[in-house]
Design goal:
The protein is of the alpha+beta class. It contains six helices and 16 strands. It has one domain. The strands form four sheets. Strands 3-4-5-2-14-9 form a six-stranded antiparallel β-sheet, with no helix packed on it.
Length: 284
């Protein structure tokens, strides 16, 4: 069964974060028309739908990004993000790719992953701004997002939605363009066939590099890549997410083939061992 192939996915590496090179391939099928899913390509990731067979092909290439974009200036990030602010200012960070790695590593270390994040109505009445700035007039959606981020930072726990929202919040503070992605990510212990409902749906992010384009990351521990076990249902701002989920809710997605060609190139001792990193430059 495919479940045994998935056990090769990286979980934890002693001595630092794993710098991964190589490629992965996967093939999926729906018990419904896969044509509803988008064909999607960015720097390192490709998802192609076969309209005749309904088969979904996903391929990932962890070749070096080779982005030379300089790191952005670090503003005041607020009380709960002081330690991150210090790291970004004090470490010898030479590219935006390194800046992204430091931010996502900080999230992995400081925010506990939880399947249960408090809802807007459960949030405390503390209305202090996360950034320390004077409150401004906001829409209800912006207000809910602000409270949600405040609660995540106070409680230090979040689900994949909360982690992605916090990552995008921090990137926006620095002027790094990013956006949400909704899809499915097969985990090591998952069966080969998943029913699309509830917590099976996953959220991660896409970060824009001016000299390399859009690149996926997952705040749960993947920097500048995701694996071929990820299937994109929609990228926010590019695809109609809600109609897609409504049409596919309750359908079954099955992974048929998974080929793992990732190799450990080296370790990054300054980053957590639960984090995997796609290289930007192999040699400097």
């Amino acid at each position: 069964m495919l479940i045994f192939l998935l056990t090769s996915l990286l979980i934890n590496v002693e001595g630092g974060a794993a710098l991964l090179i190589g490629s992965q391939q996967a093939k999926y099928t729906f018990n419904h028309s896969a044509v509803l899913l988008p064909n999607y390509t960015n720097n390192g990731f490709r998802q192609e739908i076969n309209a005749q067979t309904g088969v979904i092909h996903v391929s990932v290439e962890n070749r070096p990004i080779r982005s030379h974009t300089k790191p952005l200036l670090v503003p005041q990030l607020g009380f709960h993000l002081k330690s991150l602010e210090s790291q970004l200012r004090e470490q010898d960070i030479r590219t935006m790719a390194e800046q992204v790695a430091v931010i996502l590593n900080w999230l992995r270390l400081h925010i506990e992953y939880s399947n249960q994040t408090l809802t807007y109505h459960q949030i405390s009445q503390n209305t202090e701004s996360v950034s320390g700035e004077a409150p401004k007039m906001k829409t209800r959606r912006e207000d809910e997002s602000s409270y949600r981020i405040q609660q995540i930072l106070s409680a230090r726990r979040a689900d994949c939605v909360g982690l992605s929202e916090l990552a995008v919040f921090i990137f926006n503070k620095l002027g790094i363009h990013s956006r949400f992605v909704t899809g499915v990510a097969f985990k090591k212990d998952d069966p080969a066939r998943l029913l699309l409902e509830g917590d099976v749906l996953h959220r991660w992010i896409e970060v824009y590099y001016p000299d390399a384009g859009w690149i996926f990351s997952d705040p749960s521990g993947k920097v500048n890549y995701v694996e071929a076990t990820y299937v994109v249902l929609g990228v926010w701002g590019e695809h109609p997410i809600e109609p897609m989920i409504q049409n596919l809710f309750g359908k079954e997605l099955e992974i048929l083939i998974f080929q793992n060609g990732f190799k450990l190139f080296s370790l990054i001792p300054d980053l957590d061992g639960r984090v995997g990193v796609r290289p930007n430059m192999l040699f400097k």
